[in-house]
Amino acid sequence: MAISISVVLLLLILAVVFMRNGALKFSHALVCALLGFYLAGTSMAPTIHSGLTATADLVSSLRP
């Protein structure tokens, strides 16, 4: 749960930064958000979730 909230916040911050710089239009952000909602309702959602969890575990195990 904490990882998914962190990822959502990170993506939200990146979207705001890109929109303020003009690199991301509002329509593009809306399409990306809708795509995320549609993907969450498909059979690919568990695969995407496990892939993100594995990536987060890998990154958290790295030592600088």
Protein model, in words:
This protein is mainly alpha-helical. The protein has a domain at 1-41. Helices cover 81% and strands 0% of the residues. The longest helix has 20 residues, at 2-21. This is DUF2304 domain-containing protein. It comes from Streptomyces pluripotens.
In summary, what is this structure?
It comes from Streptomyces pluripotens. This is DUF2304 domain-containing protein. The protein has a domain at 1-41.
Jot down its keywords.
flat, 3 helices, 64 residues, 0% strand, 81% helix, mainly alpha
Tell me the layout of helices and strands.
Blueprint: H1 2-21, H2 26-40, H3 45-61
Note the run of SSEs as H and E: HHH
Structural class: mainly alpha
Overall pLDDT level = 79
Helix content: over 70%
Shape summary: flat
> In whole angstroms, how far apart are the ends?
25 Å
So how many helices?
3
Number of DSSP strands?
Answer: 0
Radius of gyration: 14 Å
Major sheet size, sense and barrel closure: none
**Could you tell me the strand content as a percent range?**
under 5%
Low-confidence stretches: none
